[in-house]
Amino acid sequence: MGLLEDKVAIVTGAGDGIGRATSMLLASEGATVVLVDVNAAGLDETKAMIEAASGAAVTCVADVSDPEQVQGYVEVAKGITGRIDGFFNNAGILGPMVPLTDYPVDAFDKVISVNLRGVFLGLKYVLPVMLAQGSGSIVNTSSMGGVGGLPGQTGYSASKHGVIGLTKTAALESVAAGVRVNAVLPGTIKTRMAMAGAAGMDPAIVEAMMDGSTPGGRAGVPEDIAKAVLFLLSDASAYMTGIELPVDGGITAQ
Ligand code: NAD
Question: Does the record bear Transcription in its keywords (predicted)?
Answer without folding.
Answer: no
